[in-house]
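Narrative summary of target 7.
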Amino acid sequence: MEDFAIKETTPNIPAANGSMLPGTAFDIVEQMDFLFVKVFNARGFIAYDGPYIANPQVVVNPYMVVKVGRYMVATKYLKSSLDCAETFAFKEEQINSDEEVEILLKDGAAITIGKVSLLISEAIRRDSVGNLYAPYWYALKDRNGRNTNMEVNLTYWMGTQADAEFASSWHSDSAVDMCCIPFTRSRQYHSPNLCYLRVSVNEAVLRGNNGNGAKIYVKATLGDVAKKTKVSNNVNPKWDEIILFVVAEPFDGSLVLTVKVQPNGERSVIIGRCIVPMENVQKREDDTPVVSDWYNLVGPEGMVGKLHMGISLEGGYHVFDEPVHYSSDFRPTANSGIPSIGVLHLGILNAAGLRVMKLMENRTDAYCVAKYGSRWVRTRTILDSVAPQWNEQFSWPVYELCTVLCIAVFDNCHLHGGPEALHQQIGKIRIRLSTLEVNRVYTFSYPLAVTRYSKVKKMGEIQLAVRLSSSTSLINRVRTYSQPLLPKMQCSSTLSEFKLDKLRNEAASLIVLSLTRDEPPLRKEVISYMLDVGVETWSLEKVIANYDRVRMVVISFLDWFENIRNWKLTMIFFYASPLIAILFPNMLLPIIFLGLIGDWLWRYRKRPRLPPDMHITLTGIVINSRYDQLRVIRRMQTALGELATLGEKVESLLSWRDGLGTSVFFVVFVFLCVAAFSITYAIGCRWFMVFLMVLLVNFLDRMPTRTLSYLKNFLDRMPTRTDSMF
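Modeled conformation, tokenized:
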């Protein structure tokens, strides 16, 4: 049986020794040494990009070739400026220090015009990543070893992956044709700033017989997205309906609103249309009332009426592009002035045991993509390896602990399958920040798995190093647990689950549109997999998974009774309670409260020190897609998931999975238990029960709403088993 457990590892990273790579903050990745060669330009000849010319001073279509050992790579063609400025990185373990670096000048017919050889052993080690050694002019020799008038300007040195030139370099472990180099390089991406556009369609006043008592509705169009209101049968129709769009900065373009009438059994006919430029739309960040206005409706024969609407850009909302329980950010669109509470560091070390993804070529070209907040990072592609070594480190500012970091591994199919080939999924993992201890370096090997043919298939393992560093005090971190998880405006005007899912898909489409335009592009299938597009559709797989989650919560609470039956430590407390009630009735409740404190301390001693394993049992059978749109059954699935989530959050209060959250709850609980112990010991159990009954009857319904919101905010941040689901 395949092993899906998470394993702790001991990589040779500088953070384990209290050091870091020279001149950088790269301390949670293993050091990799590279020979860097940077070629700037050449001189002493005339570059010509036309047909052959019989002139010794003219070189037709010249270019440079860098040769180190078995690796040979060419620069771009030199233009009239004779400037190429390209960097090449050769992995030290793939070359021999006794070898030479050969720089060849060739023409368009691949004839060597001149060359120079440099000893690798004479390369200077570059300790600082901010300073580049000055280039030097090296004289080129012809094929007979005689000096020529031609020179090449270059510099070479030994460095690490922390070097500033590393990200933009050609790499020997990603050796491909020059035209494909951009598709193998490391890259950072940023999602566009998204915002909700709120269109409140109130009523319309139509002239003449345009209404005619037929079915009238409004169609709102923004770009490629079109939405409709409900139908009104009045001559001067009223809708009082709100339509929401997702828009991306810059907020340009226009919103087109079309009033249509649909006669019985006939096609819709346009009554009138109005166009609202986005630059004229009101922007608001709070509950400031939206200014409504009358807009002219223009038809084929001129103005046909007016449309009453209120339009605004809602900066006080957070636009979700991920499922809410996997979200990596909760800040509103207008998030200026929100300070960070820490920094998340991620070291992507290596992978092992990857499956062969291209069966015809018998190879795997793997790369990683990580997302947190609006920032995406992509490692370089390691070619033809089932055990790739990346050793790349990234960092993100943290604004909320109850967020999730997502890392996925893909097979780069662009190199052999062409631009239209889909990048295949190798696996995905999630790490919840609230389960990490501050300033501790977590080094674990995580299983990579995908669901294929209704089964979970292990695709390999990835080794990561993760550290959460705090830039604020413990009190401020605790205070965040009492604050709402969502922005204030989103709490007061909540969106339905169905509407939120549709808006999330719109947001994902805008992100796809933006990131696929970058070079190299982040592919649509990669973005959809990272954002879990389509995860809200109904399937029997999710119903079974949510049922198993509820069952596991119930079983965890029934374990206490199992311990009694098996004569464990809980049995002593269980059987001692009635004995104390008989012999010392006034001491029953004090002993119970002390027992609860002791049980909590016992749980702390056995608190989990490893991330939660992936639950393979939380995967069932995928049902046919034709049932995906059954909205009633989907709501039942959602309700079952919410029930499981609530039980898992209550269970997390006792499990120490979220160390800070459980510690806060433990302190409050211990205080209440000590107070109850003191009261029951002083006045007795009977009077304590009377006091408790009076308190519940008279003051529970008067409990301040703010106190209840603190409890809700605290419970919302507790982790659940959704992080361990495939």
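Residues 620-630 have pLDDT under 50 and may be disordered.
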